UniProtKB/TrEMBL annotation:
PANTHER family tied to this protein: MEMBRANE-BOUND ACYLTRANSFERASE YKRP-RELATED
Transmembrane parts of this sequence: 63-81, 93-114, 126-145, 157-175, 239-259, 279-304, 311-331, 351-369
Protein name (database record): Acyltransferase family protein
GO molecular function, one term: acyltransferase activity, transferring groups other than amino-acyl groups
Domain Acyltransferase, chain residue ranges per copy: 62-365
Biased composition (Low complexity): 36-57
Superkingdom assignment: Bacteria
Region (Disordered): 1-58
Protein keywords: Acyltransferase, Membrane, Transferase, Transmembrane, Transmembrane helix
Organism annotation: Streptomyces luteolifulvus
């Protein structure tokens, strides 16, 4: 590469071709310098957290954008239900069912689009600007918000202790950095499950970087790395869609039954079994049991996701915006006492709050919101990175060719 960039004359070695960015890098959009190139071969909703392209037509598969949008709507709805669920057994049962699969579904998709990740400089840069920088910005913003609006003047600002929603960015950074290792080992999913089981009985891991969640949710990310497009097509068959109906009905019944019998903290994956007051051996058992249940319900969720372009398909490229921003609305409402209103604790109030949560997160995924908060979610930060030598050499080569063209 360096010889090619510095050798004069017409015998100079050819430069390597410019490589396209990795699919599925979790920053909300593609970098500026590839925007024009990607727009010619993808739909107008293209982003760096993009869905799998149709290899025959070169277009994005709307299924993945639809799945990301619907999953993030479920996340916002579940967060809105949290202050109300103790007053309604039905609502808490639904909450339990939704919590068992909405984040696993999102994490599996993230893993699926991380399959091509390696330590190439441009991909590392996108990981920093699309995940690490938003984590720092929003972890600080949430802490300040808690101090000012939440009337907690002594709330700490610590980048080592993710608060509320920012744990996912921290986890995503760690998972993606370990992707080359999972692609190297022979049996990645059993290994990831073993790590999650060990984490569930290790309270000494502590809260730094929310490692309990990072490790206990790890198998879903690794599963996504192991999946292929045909696996998603398998669960989207008509027979699976039909079978998903009774499965979800049974899950709702089990969720209602389990409300007084099971601690919902199991679904958060943020505590070791000792911290939940259960015998140590239940940790590994629950990791395996919940992994199986989550996969079953996630498959049902994917079976119901439409595969064609819908009115909300374009919003799939802005799900990270909706995820990080809706937390300010939920926490702000909690601090202001909105959830204490008696009307919200009745069935009609719960339905109204559900609709409002879905509408709010939908608005937060739109392009105008993306343009406003792009500085925090996808900064270019060209000043912070060295230019790739091959890219600089290609630019010089193009400039030399233009100079030789006669006027």
């Amino acid at each position: 590469m360096f010889h090619a960039a510095s050798s004069p004359g017409r015998n100079r070695a050819p430069l390597p071709p410019a490589q396209s960015p990795a699919d599925g890098v979790p920053s909300p959009r593609s970098p500026r310098n590839s925007k024009n190139r990607q727009s010619s071969r993808t739909s107008p909703t293209s982003s760096s957290s993009q869905s799998a392209p149709n290899r025959q037509s070169g277009q994005r598969d709307a299924f993945f954008d639809n799945a990301k949008y619907l999953a993030i709507v479920l996340v916002a709805m579940a967060h809105a239900w949290e202050p109300l669920k103790d007053d309604s057994r039905i609502l808490e049962g639904v909450y339990t069912v939704v919590y068992s699969f909405h984040m696993p579904a999102f994490i599996i998709i993230s893993g699926f689009f991380s399959r091509s990740f390696d330590m190439r400089p441009d991909r590392l840069k996108r990981l920093v600007t699309g995940v690490a920088v938003p984590y720092i910005v929003f972890e600080t913003a949430y802490s300040v918000f808690k101090r000012v609006v939440g009337d907690a003047p002594h709330a700490e600002i610590s980048l080592l202790d993710p608060w509320y929603l920012t744990w996912f960015l921290c986890a995503l950074f760690i998972w993606r950095m370990t992707t080359p290792l999972w692609k190297l080992v022979r049996h990645p999913l059993p290994l990831a499950l073993g790590i999650a089981m060990l984490a569930s009985v290790t309270p000494d891991i502590g809260n730094d970087l929310d490692l309990q969640r990072v490790l206990q949710f790890l198998p879903y990310f690794v599963l996504g790395l192991c999946m292929k497009p045909e696996h998603f097509r398998l669960v989207r068959r008509r027979s699976v869609r039909i079978l998903a109906v009774p499965v979800f009905m049974i899950a709702l019944a089990v969720g209602w039954w389990a409300v007084p019998r099971m601690n919902t903290a199991w679904f958060y994956h943020r505590d070791a079994v000792q911290e939940l007051g259960a015998p140590w051996w239940t940790g590994p058992v629950m990791v395996l049991a919940m992994f199986g249940c989550s996969l079953l319900l996630t498959a049902c969720f994917f079976a119901w996701v439409p595969g064609r372009s819908m009115w909300f398909t374009a919003l799939g490229s802005g799900t990270l915006y909706g995820y990080l921003l809706h937390g300010f609305l939920i926490k702000g409402g909690d601090y202001a006492g909105w959830f204490d209103h008696p009307a919200l604790h009745r069935p009609l109030g719960e339905i109204l709050l559900t609709v409002l949560a879905a509408a709010a997160v939908t608005l937060l995924c739109t392009r105008p919101v993306q343009r406003i908060f792009r500085f925090a979610m996808e900064p270019s930060m060209e000043w912070a990175f060295k230019r790739d030598a091959a890219e600089l050499a290609r630019e010089r080569e193009r400039g030399g060719r233009r100079e030789k063209v006669p006027a």
